[in-house]
Design goal:
By secondary structure, the chain is α/β, with parallel strands linked by helices. The chain has three domains: 4-109, Rossmann fold (3-Layer(aba) Sandwich); 154-290, HUPs (Rossmann fold, 3-Layer(aba) Sandwich), CATH 3.40.50; 306-346. It is built from 14 helices and nine strands. Strand 8 (261-264), helix 12 (280-285) and strand 9 (288-290) form a beta-alpha-beta unit. Pathway: Phospholipid metabolism; phosphatidylethanolamine biosynthesis; phosphatidylethanolamine from ethanolamine: step 2/3; Lipid metabolism. InterPro entries: CCT (IPR041723), Cyt_trans-like (IPR004821), Ect1/PCYT2 (IPR044608), Rossmann-like_a/b/a_fold (IPR014729). Residues 1-118, 175-266 form the Cytidyltransferase-like domain.
């Protein structure tokens, strides 16, 4: 998957240098080393391109990063999170570049991982935002894969926000929705919205969790409001986010943000609690536009992909956790041996 944890990693990587190139693996490489990918390689290429800190992407990047790869793209160094990444046979994929001093590390975002999100989709329980559930059963205690709750801070929002005010001559475009499990359908829609004006300033209104649950039903949203905020803010087509936007796009909101245009995709518009059209006011003002992104993918479709491959994904999660636990054990043993050797020297 591509999620806000990855965006946060790319944000940190960009801050370490001037130009950020992101290598994205093929489906075949991921299947071989990790298990089935949730998004296809084409979807992932497009999604990573849409993250605002990315300057360039390399399609079909090798799974093991070598000095040859870094030199080929004129890279001074490569960056990875402080979790470990292993090949199918348990080797550190960054061994060579670490040895040559061309490796930097950034902080992993606590409380989110593909494993965690896949777990939430497999469980689809009402409590999946707050319950700390591990798919791998009671034995799984890997600090990288184990599920912990995401804790939002104002600092994190500031780091993700553009901080840019609309300028005179900008067209202020407003869109609203759940934007749950931020995916390529959302990216294509926001790109199309962005193209509606010469100088677009796109504001995304995000509905609170209970509002999303009211109109989407089941156990939606899968991501809570804080997670959805960061997912949307990381997109290069978005200038601002309204956290907990009112469901009806009314007079106050339109006047407050001086909205020039309100857009909605081809998906169904659910009525407000009182049965009224949430877009009645922008329609009355003649500023409502339906935008066809040409992509019909929905959050429901993503969940269906996971459920269809349920057994494969459960096996993937358990295998990944077991591999990480083995590495932790090896690291612990090595540390013990080093400590024993040091103790003998001092004696």
């Amino acid at each position: 998957m591509v999620h806000y944890g990855h965006s946060n990693q790319l944000r940190q990587a960009k801050a370490m240098g001037d130009y950020l190139i992101v290598g994205v693996h093929t489906d075949a490489e991921i299947s071989k080393h990790k298990g089935p990918p949730v998004f296809t390689q084409e979807e992932r290429y497009k999604m990573v391109r849409a993250i605002k800190w990315v300057d360039e992407i390399v399609e079909g990047a090798p799974y093991v990063t070598t000095l040859e790869t870094l030199d080929k793209y004129n890279c001074d160094f490569c960056v990875h999170g402080d979790d470990i990444t292993l090949t199918v046979d348990g080797k550190d994929t960054y061994e060579e570049v670490k040895r040559e001093g061309r490796y930097r590390e950034c902080k992993r975002t606590q409380g989110v991982s593909t494993t965690d999100l896949v777990g939430r989709m497999l469980l689809m329980t009402k409590a999946h935002h707050s319950n700390m559930v591990s798919l791998s059963g009671p034995k799984g205690h890997s600090p990288w894969t184990g599920v912990s709750q995401f804790l939002q801070t104002s600092q994190k929002i500031i780091q993700f926000a553009s901080g840019k005010e609309p300028q005179p001559g900008d067209s202020i475009i407003y869109v609203a929705g759940a934007f749950d499990l931020f995916h390529i359908g959302h990216v294509d829609f926001l790109e199309m919205v962005y193209k509606q004006a010469e100088r677009p300033y796109v504001i995304v209104g995000l509905h609170f969790d209970q509002e999303v649950n009211r109109y989407k039903g089941k156990n939606y949203p899968i991501m809570n409001i804080h997670e959805r905020t960061l997912s949307v803010l990381a997109c290069r087509y978005v200038s601002e986010v309204v956290i907990g936007a009112p469901y009806a796009v009314g007079k106050d909101l339109l006047d407050h943000f001086k909205v020039d245009l309100v857009c909605h995709g081809k998906t169904e518009v659910f009525p407000d609690k009182d049965g009224s059209d949430p877009y009645a006011e922008p329609k009355k003002r003649g500023i409502f536009r339906t935008v066809d992104s040409g992509n019909g993918l929905t959050t429901d479709d993503i969940v269906q992909r996971i459920i269809a491959n349920r057994l494969q994904f459960e096996a993937r999660n358990q295998k990944k956790e077991a591999k990480e636990m083995a590495v932790i054990e090896a690291m612990r043993k090595r540390e013990e041996e080093q400590n024993e050797a040091a103790a003998q020297v001092t004696q």
